[in-house]
Predict the structure of DUF2129 domain-containing protein.
Amino acid sequence: MLAERTGFIIWVSDVKAARNLEKYGSVHYISRRMHYVVMYVNADRAEETMKNIRRLSYVRKIERSYRNEIKTEYNSKGPDKAKFYGP
């Protein structure tokens, strides 16, 4: 079974040094233009990992991703209009 993951958006001052974040978790994306890194870590060690990352000299700010807390199942109250345009 897959482990529960938590996402972090890490704002950095040096993009080349940001490659070293791979030892803390899975780096998903590095933005060279806007200087941020999207990475995922195990949820059970997220707080400990965040403290270690915050100590790095090239890290400016860390934001936690709320993607897994957002409701992704939608239901519409109105009728389905696709049925009206059928043959």
The helical segments are 46-54. Residues 5-67 form a domain with the Alpha-Beta Plaits fold (CATH 3.30.70.80). The chain has a mean pLDDT of 90.
